[in-house]
């Protein structure tokens, strides 16, 4: 089994209401752990946010694996705002729900860009015929 870790820094355009509510900046960091077995063609990636984890927790899992001559891409995310719902017995529940919805929406946008970018890279490397072999599953979020 081969393991890799990397620290990811991301600059995002965060809405003013989120910056005011949580006191965040436009740059955030996440830890990504990648594992694969060279004898079994499957890659698993686990990512967790390091920035602002007291307010929002995002845990993502991505798998790439062969599937009947195609590459299967499975992506799941778990998003929650425990730091806001535990403040003053849930006074900020609606803000937490809104922040979770915003994060889910942004996550889906970024996931689509990531899938499109990955497909573009594969097509550039292996030609347009690769498109018929690519199978991309729709991400789910909990």
Automatic annotation (TrEMBL):
Name a GO CC annotation attached to this entry.
mitochondrial intermembrane space
Domain PRELI/MSF1 as annotated: residue spans: 1-130
Which InterPro entries does the UniProt entry name for this protein? PRELI/MSF1_dom, Slowmo/Ups
What name has this protein been given in UniProt?
A: PRELI/MSF1 domain-containing protein
This chain's source organism reads Malassezia globosa (strain ATCC MYA-4612 / CBS 7966)
